[in-house]
Amino acid sequence: MKTENEIRVRFAPSPTGYIHVGNARTALFNWLFARQKGGVFVLRVEDTDIERSREEYERNLIQDLRWLGLDWDEGPDVGGKFGPYRQSERLDLYHRYAAKLLEEGKAYYCFCTPEELESQRQAALAEGRMPVYSGRCRNISLDEARRRLSAGEEGAIRLKVPEEGLIQFEDLVRGPVEFDLKLIGDPIIVRSNGMPAYNYAVVVDDALMNITHVIRGEDHVSNTPRQILLYQALGWKQPVFAHLSMVMGKDNTRLSKRHGATSVDQFRRDGILAEALCNYLSFLGWSPPEGNEVLRLEELVKLFDLSRVSRSAAIFDYEKLHWLNRQHIRLLPAEKKLELALPYLREAGLAGPELSPAQREWLEKAVTILVEGVDKFSELPQKFSLLFDFEPENLDQEARDIIQTDSARKVLGAFIQKTSGLKEFNYELFAALTGEIKKETGIKGKDLFHPLRVALTARASGLELDKFIPLVEAGAKLDFPQRIKSCLERIAEISSILRK
RNA sequence: GCCCCUGUCGUCUAGCCCGGCCUAGGACAUCGCCCUUUCAAGGCGGCAACACGGGUUCGAAUCCCGUCGGGGGCGCCA
User: Fold this and answer.
1) CA–C1' gap, A292 and B59, in angstroms
2) Last residue of a domain, one of A218, A244, A270
3) How many Å does it take to go from CA A93 to C1' B16?
4) Which site in A24, A128, A262, A374 is 20 to 30 Å from A65, CA atoms measured?
5) Per the structure, how many domains does chain A have?
6) Which of A2, A81, A100, A257 is catalytic?
């Protein structure tokens, strides 16, 4: 089924921590590109930095990407015909091609110590030059290098780069890009500890995995000429490159914890929908041609266009993410809303581990009503406190002011009196009673309803009472970990407080 | 310090390549109004930008140069 011009892209994170939204955007753009073009999306784990890579991070990474709704056709967990997909398992490949480059005189051993290199770099910086490797070990013959190696010296392998010339390439988002070779020193391709350097490993992997399009962050543009040089030295066809601008925080510095949530994991915990996150991430540097901006993954696949991607950095806007999240939540069916809300309600102690059918039904109704206007699911328990918490002795100033007016006292007095003998309460009854009070006292509108709201909710604002009362009445009959007080109980409490 | 990239409403952006259709469009945020017994949601409307300075041109957001701002890079990190 593999055709000659099959498009193959890859996302190649290093497992050194939780996946950042900037990386998630890169993954998403690769995925959208692949899916739109009917191509292949490869996940490759770049774990050659032994110091920082950890196995659990790889699991998190996979979990986060799957949660986002991105799937890959080849990868460490699903296999594929170009594997292995973990760089740590491809070491022999890197060594094989390094040996070839060495044999052909395109690479050489370098015995300069890190200290020497560092002082050269400092010297160059001090003189206002670009620090470029001096090429001191360039002319050490392979034979001599081998002797020194077997004598116990440590050496790294460097690629020989022409001293003059231009490296040019066409970047799918940045247009034509060129680099002066004078500013590029011979890069290390294999470290003295035997591990491949990033620039080298990527090239070997991308080439051997037949990657046709490399879509990655802007921080890699300056690596690109070195990598192109490597493709040339190895006689491989180079892929098409596309470099995405960075994602910044409000103050125009790289997005970090200071700015708020930054990891996919954290957004998930906060109750941001995967679809909303993807929708938002796709808008960082890109925008749909026209029309609706609330888009699901499949719609993004249709509309996405790399050539429309902006070259300048984008600032991450939590407000817009939240708006999109609200829109996506709204599109969810009620049972899905409940399913997503339940963990937050349980954690807040509002729902037990087991739900009776009646409880489930009630919660579904309550969630559907209360989730309106909520930025993310983690805010839901707060909203639920309107139903679960009733503390008339702790009224805030606003609520207190509302019930302290003369007309409010009149309204409440009448209301308490009319409800005193009641066994049952419901919204119809409430409507009838307020009608009577209106007729008897002449008080209407806000002056009539606002005190009653405070009496029933102990708050100055909240749900519409025609939604609130049925919900509270039904909820009071159910056995929740934290009991909901019925309207009549609430009225009794408030009347005893008013008497004081 | 040096090299490269980038600069349209507060934010994401459309328009820029192929100058006039731009009194610069959309979305988020904000403000106001409507709806509503409050809030929210929703509907309607308002405020708000071509970084600056020079050119080129009959005409520039669009082309050229410079300045300034922002970002990225300059590793035996990825």
Assistant:
1) 36
2) A244
3) 46
4) A374
5) 2
6) A257
Q: Nearest nucleotide to A176 by CA–C1' distance? A: B5
User: Of A224, A244, A264, at which residue does a domain stop?
Assistant: A244
The C-alpha atoms of residue A165 and residue A184 are separated, in whole angstroms, by: 10
**Calpha distance A422→A32 (Å, rounded):** 62
Q: Which structural domain range is residue A468 located in?
A: 389-499
Distance A218 CA to B73 C1' (A): 10
Residue A477 domain flag = yes
Residue at A253: amino acid letter: T
CATH number at residue A454: 1.10.10.350
A178: nearest nucleotide, CA–C1' criterion: B4
Rounded distance in angstroms from the CA atom of residue A302 to the C1' atom of nucleotide B29:
28
Could you give the ipTM of this predicted complex?
Answer: 0.93
Residue A355 lies inside a defined structural domain of this protein: no
A311 CB closer than 7 A to any strand B atom: yes
Residues 6 or more apart whose Cβ sits within 8 Å of residue A156? A109, A110, A188, A190, A191, A192
Residue A104 falls within a domain, yes or no?
A: yes
Instruction: For residue A117, say whether its CB is under 7 Å from any atom of strand B.
Output: yes
* Residue A106 is a catalytic residue: no
pLDDT tens digit sequence for A283-341: 999 999 877 899 999 999 999 999 899 999 999 999 999 999 999 999 999 999 999 99
Number of C-beta neighbours around residue A110 at 10 A: 21
Q: Is residue A325, in this structure, part of any structural domain at all?
A: no
Q: Specify burial of residue A115 (Cβ count, 10 A radius: 0-12, 13-18, 19+).
A: exposed
pLDDT digits (tens, 9 = 90+) for A134-178: 888 999 999 999 999 999 999 999 999 998 888 999 999 999 998
